[in-house]
Amino acid sequence: MRAQAASLALHATAILLALWVLLPIYFIAVAAFSTPDAVYAYPKQLLPRDVSLETMRFFLGSEGVGESLVRSVLVAALTLLLALGIGTPAGYALARFAFRGSDAVRLTIVGTRAFPIVILSIPLAVMFLRWGIDDSVFGLALAHTALALPFAVLVTSSVFAGISVELEEAAMTLGCSRAGAIRRVALPLALPGLAAAAIFVFIISWNEVFAASILTLRNPTLPAQVLAALEQSPLPYRFAGGFFLLAPSLIVIFVIRRYLFNMWGRVVR
Amino acid sequence: MADVGFERVRKTFGKVVAVDDVDLEVTDGEFVVLLGPSGCGKTTLLRCLAGLEKVDGGRVLIGGRDATDLPPRRRRISMVFQSYAVFPHMRVFDNIAFGLRMQKERKAAIAERVRSAAELLHIEELLDRYPAQLSGGQRQRVAVARAIATKSEVLLMDEPLSNLDALLRLEMRAELKALLRKLEATTIYVTHDQVEALSMGDRIAVMKAGRIVQVDSPLAVYDNPADTYVGGFIGTPPMNFLEAMVEDGRANVSGGSLPLADASSELEDRKLLLGSRAEAITVKDEPHDDAIRATVVVLEPLGSHNLLTVRSGEDTLKVATPPQVFREPDSEVWLGLEPARIRWMDADTGEAIAPPGQREVAAAPA
What we know:
The complex is a heterodimer.
Chain A: H1 2-32, H2 36-40, H3 54-61, H4 65-96, H5 102-114, H6 117-131, H7 137-161, H8 165-173, H9 178-207, H10 210-215, H11 222-230, H12 235-261
Helix pairs in contact in A: 1-12, 3-12, 4-7, 4-9, 4-11, 5-7, 7-9, 8-9, 9-12, 11-12
Chain B: E1 4-13, E2 16-26, E3 31-35, H1 42-50, E4 57-62, E5 65-66, E6 77-80, H2 92-102, H3 107-120, H4 136-149, E7 154-158, H5 166-183, E8 186-191, H6 194-200, E9 203-208, E10 211-216, H7 218-223, H8 228-233, E11 240-247, E12 250-253, E13 256-259, E14 272-276, E15 281-284, E16 292-301, E17 306-312, E18 315-321, E19 332-337, E20 343-346, E21 352-353, H9 356-363
Parallel strand pairs in B: 3-8, 3-9, 6-7, 7-8
Antiparallel strand pairs in B: 1-2, 1-4, 4-5, 9-10, 11-12, 11-14, 12-13, 14-20, 15-19, 16-17, 16-19, 17-18, 20-21
Helix pairs in contact in B: 2-3, 2-4, 3-4
């Protein structure tokens, strides 16, 4: 009986927590896929009755949304490439080699996150202006890489630390060079962890609004665009915009999550 | 197949000397066991041979070639790791085929070699499984199959049985020995288990603090330990050592005096340790001129024999008796030490003083 009660309490808590997260998402989604009239109506509808793409169409048709959406994807993709491209080797080195000051390096990496970007933003904007990479996808991706890199390094280093060195050594005794052992053994084994790091990096960039607002003017990313237009925009625009910012994160997590859990016919955490 | 040589091989980690100027020659097809307690440098020595550690001095020779600066893949070795190091993201087949694929063998040849290696280790029916679906013993077999599939010249094994449970270890020990005999591969086998070393090796190299203390056939190491360390490390129970002086052809120990087979003058007038194996001691009930008095402290019936812990004078000894001989604690017994099986060590250095007759045996290789 007691076990049953405990399990009941556990399930109730889980459901409550899930609702806490899911309900707002649900309401945003319902509003985003209703007619603009329904969005204004009060009380709000609990079930989607007036399902329509009109609100979404209105949002997507709004000035600058389409371009900023493409830009957001480009920036996030470029950030992902840069952050993992630099972060993975760095993470590998931190995990595998005990070099003088490796702890200091680790700490410094985390430390960069303690530096507020607000202070950094003005010099950064000036420098970008001087270099002529302000208001560009590449420039913003660089800034986002700087933000995401500490996470990329630390996550990949813990991923590689979880893979036994002996596996790579075994590959080396079986005919691999060091690089070959990394490619054939360490990387495939690190893939789920690297995928998790990739999701993380992508979403950091996708949701980042401050640097995006400072460093772009005529070419904002979606969050910067939505933020700039928020005050003057009608409700349907806000809901549709909110949904649009939410959706990719949800889809990416959903898709890669299955990949994370189903590798090699067993559960991988 | 190839012979292997270490020439004054040295490896340090910071200030710690893990391998201290080791010399060792292993002939083609020989099975040599590196034996020692953890931290004695045996695994480091093996890794120097594999190329996984860079030596700080000396040379490593494989098949007559200087392999000191070669990467592992150019050394024509294969290795079985203590953790097995079976690749979790590959099926058993691909694990065993890994080395063959790296050698760019033809597909048909790979399939053939994988099958024959799998057959030798009785894992043919597991080829389609992932390592996560295997037991520890099965993974161990995969690791061995992967190592022998490449037909490398030298097979290195780093405590391959230490992660198995006792029963499986016993079974695998005999199977592995038979397998390696069939393969005729030069094998270097690292273990801390002296029973494994005695039962498997052609020769045993006993290591201590980065140095090889003694290299000999298992029986020679058991019967004629080079020093008290080897005598105390090898054998269950370890060799008994008693402080002794030799006088008038007899050995005086704290519990009495014992006759000697041949008392060379070398033994007189110095502090000695008398070494005797537990099974070279006979237990008598009656006082005897050539026996020392002792009191039984503990009796351990072990089935095949009984193990007595006895106290004689200042010394505590382990004595193995036939299973039907029971001596209860506190009972008085007399111990006869088989004179021909008494070994002498210098009390200060701990090193063996071999009587003239035994020197040849100790020096000869297997």
